UniProtKB/TrEMBL annotation:
Residues annotated as binding S-adenosyl-L-methionine: G99, E122, I123, N157, A158, C177, T255, E256, E257
Organism of origin: Zygosaccharomyces bailii (strain CLIB 213 / ATCC 58445 / CBS 680 / BCRC 21525 / NBRC 1098 / NCYC 1416 / NRRL Y-2227)
Reactions catalysed according to its record: guanosine(46) in tRNA + S-adenosyl-L-methionine = N(7)-methylguanosine(46) in tRNA + S-adenosyl-L-homocysteine
Protein name: tRNA (guanine-N(7)-)-methyltransferase
Signal peptide: none
Gene3D superfamilies per the UniProt record, alphabetical: Vaccinia Virus protein VP39
Length: 282
């Protein structure tokens, strides 16, 4: 008889840990943290959230998504930014980390952009759960100064449903950090940067907004640069601009993948592109 995975075995430590975190998540995920409680929550431990490194973006993952951006309830993700008298959001999401992984970039961007709502989109279930638990713990532990209220994460497939979440020109920054390289040529259609997808990114990105890319795979870097340079609505920003941009500095060192590359003394390839104005139709 085949043994159950540790994550499904009621007698395992991993199962017990996940159950306790799930209960905590259901209780605190969509609520404002009460400062008066002053009870610390331990940050989640990655070893209890193990999952396959890659996920097929073309599969049916039974994802939940709004029919249109107007139907998205952002107050569930950012309760601190909801006007209690009107029920309306005081801010909107302007920064998106596509394939946010374990949330390192979200956490480091939060204090840099306190007035921007920052959203991570991640397709893997357990990785999303980890980031949710990480944000809950950070919000709770920094409740006195209302820290980390401006970051959140949702499980979603940006290759399919990005326009369901964001209005035209809503975003100012989009990050693609160490995306799956899909090395085999027959898998290139699953890469997160393609001609078709870039048109969707251009739709949700405002004029003057920036796409940030970073990878340790030279072939993937060349692929992303080629497709972005060929698209009429994007123009590459130079090395001098990159050296002065705070987001590039954070992106280079904040993510878990980036830290892994540093430990292995590998290379990181960065490319940033500005969203150009729509051409005038004569």
């Amino acid at each position: 008889m085949k043994a159950k995975p540790l994550s499904q075995d009621p007698g395992s430590k991993r199962y017990a840990y996940r159950v306790s975190k799930e209960e905590n998540r259901k209780e605190l995920k969509h609520v404002k943290i009460d400062v008066a409680e002053d009870k610390k929550i331990d940050l989640p431990r990655k070893r209890f959230y193990r999952q396959r490194a890659h996920s097929n973006p073309f599969s049916d993952h039974q994802l939940e998504y709004p029919a249109s951006p107007d139907e998205m309830d952002w107050a569930e993700l950012y309760p601190e930014f909801q006007d209690q008298s009107t029920g309306e959001m005081t801010n909107q999401v302007t920064i998106a980390d596509i394939g946010c992984g374990f949330g390192g970039l979200l956490v480091d961007l939060s204090p840099e952009f306190p007035n921007d709502l920052i959203l991570g989109m991640e397709i893997r279930v357990q990785v999303t759960n980890y980031v949710e638990d990480r944000i809950i713990a950070l919000r709770n532990n920094h409740a006195k100064d209302k820290g980390y209220q401006n970051i959140s994460v949702l499980r979603g497939n940006a290759m399919k449903f990005l326009p369901n979440f964001f209005h035209k020109g809503q975003l100012s920054k989009m990050f693609f950090c160490f995306p799956d390289p899909h090395f085999k040529q027959r898998k290139h259609k699953a890469r997160i940067i393609t001609n078709t997808l870039l048109s969707e990114y251009a739709f949700v990105l405002k004029e003057g907004g920036v796409i940030y890319t970073i990878t340790d795979v030279k072939d993937l870097h060349d692929w992303m640069v080629k497709h972005l340079e060929e698209h009429p609505l994007f123009q590459r920003l130079g090395a001098e601009w990159e050296s002065k941009d705070r987001c590039v500095q954070i992106m280079t060192h904040a993510t878990e993948e980036g830290k892994k590359v540093e430990r292995k003394k590998g290379d990181k390839f960065v490319a940033c592109f500005e969203r150009l104005a729509n051409p005038t139709i004569i």
